[in-house]
Design a protein that fits this description.
Blueprint: E1 4-9, H1 13-30, E2 33-38, H2 42-45, H3 61-68, E3 74-78, E4 90-94, E5 103-107, E6 121-123, H4 127-136, E7 141-143, H5 149-153, E8 178-182, H6 183-188, E9 197-198, E10 213-218, H7 225-234, H8 237-252, E11 261-268, E12 271-279, E13 286-294, H9 298-314, H10 317-320
Parallel strand pairs: 1-2, 1-3, 6-7, 6-8
Antiparallel strand pairs: 3-10, 4-10, 5-8, 5-9, 11-12, 12-13
Helix pairs in contact: 1-7, 8-9
Family: Belongs to the HMBS family.
InterPro entries: HemC (IPR000860), Porphobilin_deaminase_cofac_BS (IPR022419), Porphobilin_deaminase_N (IPR022417), Porphobilinogen_deaminase_C (IPR022418), Porphobilinogen_deaminase_C_sf (IPR036803)
Domain Porphobilinogen deaminase N-terminal: 5-220
Length: 324
């Protein structure tokens, strides 16, 4: 039997789909077999609002501990779920090319964001999405929701029976006019048909790192030379620069993903452009800024994120976002 590497994943449909895709790519590059190790995380078992659970890292901690304990050789995360501080002993060995970065509106009767009725009920567990929605349309009613993608879709009137895989919050069905989900997750699960509208980043900036996967190993490597070489090959330089800028901005603002901060970087010619927004949680105030630098290295990308955050802080971003 040929040598195998062990990849750790959460058990949700989205996590196993993402992990399966990444592991398959790495298996093809490295010539190794794959063994999948399912790890239950606090975010999968604890009910309640994601914001009150501490937001960032709630899905990652158990998986990372398993990796540190050598229970697996590699862990696959949604990058937007990872805290900005990298734990000692672990390294993000590869960030593959990014999926769609946008947030997606999934609504009843195919209504767009502008067509939803006055006072429409929209579900999201993200303060960032809620704040930007309210900044755009203050009449909307935001409902805090949890659960996997099919569970959340099932909350929309008329979406009907969904592919529920036993997640929290699945008892309520059809009580909302719409939900907001990451387009990347919908596409990875083959559920794009439920997307009514891809929200323009001009209306809603995504979470830092949204649409990107993070493949994490121990600092000393995975224990498989061919896997380490495959990870180096799988890393996408442009995606890494973009997400490093976004995460450096978030770290400088000292805001976890439970804070209403959006950021999106893109490469324009030979420049890296970073856009960011800080919002009051009720959408009453927003501060939107952008900056650019030469797209030359991860270090310059991180510096761009830090300097844009510092200028936003100087202009009162922490007060706007309710972090002060």
């Amino acid at each position: 039997m040929s040598e195998a590497f062990r990849v750790g994943t959460r058990g949700s449909a989205l996590a196993t789909t993402q992990t399966g895709w990444a592991a398959q790519q790495l298996a093809e590059i490295s010539g190794l077999e794959v063994q999948t190790v399912l790890v239950k995380t606090e975010g999968d078992v604890v009910t309640g609002s994601l914001a009150t659970l501490g937001g960032t890292g709630v899905f990652a901690a158990a998986l990372r501990q398993h990796l540190l304990d050598s229970g697996c050789d590699l862990a696959v995360h949604s990058l937007k779920d990872l805290p900005t501080a990298q734990p000692e002993g672990l390294v993000l060995a590869a960030i593959p090319p990014r999926e769609d970065v946008r947030d997606a509106l999934c609504s009843r009767d195919s209504l767009g964001l502008d067509q939803l009725p006055q006072g429409a009920k929209i579900g999201t567990g993200s303060p960032r999405r809620a704040a930007q929605l309210l900044a755009y349309r203050s009449d909307l009613q935001i409902v805090d929701i949890r659960g996997n993608v099919p569970t959340r879709l099932g909350r929309v009137k008329g979406v009907g029976e969904t592919l529920d895989d036993g997640s929290v919050g699945r008892s309520t069905q059809g009580d909302l006019d719409a939900v907001i989900l990451a387009a990347a997750g919908m596409r990875r699960l083959g559920l794009e048909k439920h997307i009514t509208e891809y929200l323009d980043p001009a209306i809603m900036l995504p979470a830092p790192g949204q649409g990107a996967l993070a493949l994490e190993t121990r600092t000393a490597g995975s224990g498989h030379k061919s896997l380490d070489a495959a990870l180096a090959q799988f890393d996408d330089a442009a995606t890494r620069m973009q997400v490093e800028a976004e995460r450096a901005l978030l770290a400088e603002l000292e805001a976890g993903c439970a804070a209403p901060i959006g950021a999106l970087a893109h490469i324009e010619g030979d420049e890296l452009v970073l856009e960011a927004v800080a919002c009051n949680p009720d959408g009453s105030q927003t501060m939107r800024r952008s900056a650019r630098t030469e797209a030359s290295s991860v270090q310059s990308a991180q510096q761009l994120g830090r300097s844009l955050a510092q200028s936003m802080i100087a202009d009162g971003a922490a007060v706007v976002a309710g972090l002060a």
